[in-house]
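EI: anyone free to look at a 91-residue chain?
SC: sure, send it
EI:
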Amino acid sequence: MVAGSYALLKIRKHKASIETEEATKNAFVMPFISTVLGYDVFNPAEVIPEFTADVGTKRGEKIDYAIAHDRQVQVLVEVKKINDALKIEGR
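SC: here you go
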């Protein structure tokens, strides 16, 4: 089974029991970063938790994860509890 398909099935199966943002990170986001994207979530040089962002509307704020390659941040990941509405601010 393809990693992305597995992740989707896992989310469908367990989303009703996930009640917090932290549980969402542990159950879905960290496995996705690891399995689908291929980063080592336990290597702080690759996946940086609670990253202080200095870009856009998040300047100076904490972002849940920054994903880095060769010490350069490539992706910022902000996590919300599953089923929470997402808002795009600053547009």
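EI: Residues 11 and 28 are 7 Å apart (CA to CA).
SC: 👍
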